[in-house]
């Protein structure tokens, strides 16, 4: 597993450094004008308010990142969705307000991936909250676009928050031994995770998730390894309604619903990631419950319908009325 993860990390870095848009792992530049989008969307799941918060978007060359399907098929699927394979991918964070607790699902990229990301704190302010008000952050996995926002200018962005994460991701990404053994061009992955998470760990603010536990009365972690060793999705249940926060179960909405076997180079274990995608998609479709995806087009909430050999993504209908 460790060897496979390092191999995938090497491939990921190579891809990032060759993107024609000028994206790199350490710095991202763009000449495009950035739009000032509202960056939040509110909805109700039972008694719980869920607020989608945009951390921004990032251009990804899906033609190079997606595999296990013919390139022409992938290109056609994007074209059928009025997109090109140079896709602008959303990075979504979710704020769960339950009782007197404010809980974030992931923390965005912070300052680690350039100017088109790192919008979380600004959008949090737009819904009336300050970083110090956040009680907990549930991390789906330790890739930098999910944990980079834990730190800002060398300080904890959310100083009063307890960080929860899967034990397998904690053990792997925060291991100094693993970081030392990593190829030179993959060390930034460990460096980003360690700089983002280690300060809260040393401060006693990081906790490993436990199987079967319920957090804040309404949220249960669901181990969904494959994308990373400790990848975790989260299930919110309230008054008979359910929402699953996918994390990185799916990246390319134009492709991976129509062709769920298509995987992405970011996956550590591609077959396992595919198996988890099918398992979660089937459960969401049969249960008819809400889905929230970290990289589905913002706000990333909706439902999944299962067909014979594929799935259909149905974005949430825009609503101003609490259900």
UniProtKB/TrEMBL annotation:
<dbReference type="InterPro" id="IPR051013">
    <property type="entry name" value="MBL_superfamily_lactonases"/>
</dbReference>
<protein>
    <submittedName>
        <fullName>MBL fold metallo-hydrolase</fullName>
    </submittedName>
</protein>
<feature type="domain" description="Metallo-beta-lactamase">
    <location>
        <begin position="90"/>
        <end position="295"/>
    </location>
</feature>
<dbReference type="Pfam" id="PF00753">
    <property type="entry name" value="Lactamase_B"/>
</dbReference>
<dbReference type="InterPro" id="IPR036866">
    <property type="entry name" value="RibonucZ/Hydroxyglut_hydro"/>
</dbReference>
<keyword id="KW-0862">Zinc</keyword>
<comment type="similarity">
    <text>Belongs to the metallo-beta-lactamase superfamily.</text>
</comment>
<keyword id="KW-0732">Signal</keyword>
<dbReference type="GO" id="GO:0046872">
    <property type="term" value="F:metal ion binding"/>
</dbReference>
<keyword id="KW-0479">Metal-binding</keyword>
<dbReference type="GO" id="GO:0016787">
    <property type="term" value="F:hydrolase activity"/>
</dbReference>
<keyword id="KW-0378">Hydrolase</keyword>
<dbReference type="InterPro" id="IPR001279">
    <property type="entry name" value="Metallo-B-lactamas"/>
</dbReference>
<feature type="signal peptide">
    <location>
        <begin position="1"/>
        <end position="27"/>
    </location>
</feature>
């Amino acid at each position: 597993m460790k060897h496979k993860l390092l191999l995938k990390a090497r491939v990921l870095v190579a891809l990032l450094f060759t993107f024609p848009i000028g994206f790199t792992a350490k710095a991202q530049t763009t000449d495009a004008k950035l739009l000032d989008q509202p960056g939040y969307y509110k909805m109700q799941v039972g008694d719980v308010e869920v607020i989608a918060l945009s951390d921004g978007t990032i251009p990804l060359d899906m033609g190079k990142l997606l595999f296990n399907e013919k390139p022409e098929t992938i290109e056609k699927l994007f074209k059928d969705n009025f997109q090109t394979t140079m896709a602008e991918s959303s990075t979504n964070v979710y704020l769960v307000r339950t009782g007197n607790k404010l809980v974030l699902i992931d923390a965005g990229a912070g300052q680690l991936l350039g100017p088109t990301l790192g919008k979380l704190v600004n959008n949090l302010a737009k819904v009336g909250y300050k970083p110090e008000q956040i009680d907990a952050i549930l991390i789906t996995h330790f890739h930098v676009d999910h944990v980079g926002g834990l730190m800002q200018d060398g300080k904890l962005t959310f100083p009063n928050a307890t960080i929860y994460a899967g034990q397998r991701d904690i053990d792997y990404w925060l291991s100094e031994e693993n970081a030392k053994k990593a190829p030179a061009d993959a060390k930034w992955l460990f460096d980003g995770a360690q700089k983002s998470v280690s300060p809260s760990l040393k401060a006693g603010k990081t906790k490993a998730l436990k199987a079967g536990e319920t957090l804040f009365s309404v949220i249960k972690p669901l181990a969904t390894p494959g994308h990373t060793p400790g990848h975790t999705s989260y299930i919110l249940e309230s008054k008979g309604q359910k929402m699953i926060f996918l994390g990185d179960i799916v990246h390319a909405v134009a492709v991976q619903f129509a062709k769920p076997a298509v995987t992405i180079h970011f996956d550590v274990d591609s077959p396992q990631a595919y198996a988890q995608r099918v398992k979660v998609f089937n459960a969401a479709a049969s249960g008819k419950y809400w889905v929230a995806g970290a990289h589905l087009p913002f706000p990333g909430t909706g439902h999944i319908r299962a067909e014979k050999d594929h799935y259909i993504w149905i974005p949430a209908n825009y609503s101003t009325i609490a259900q």
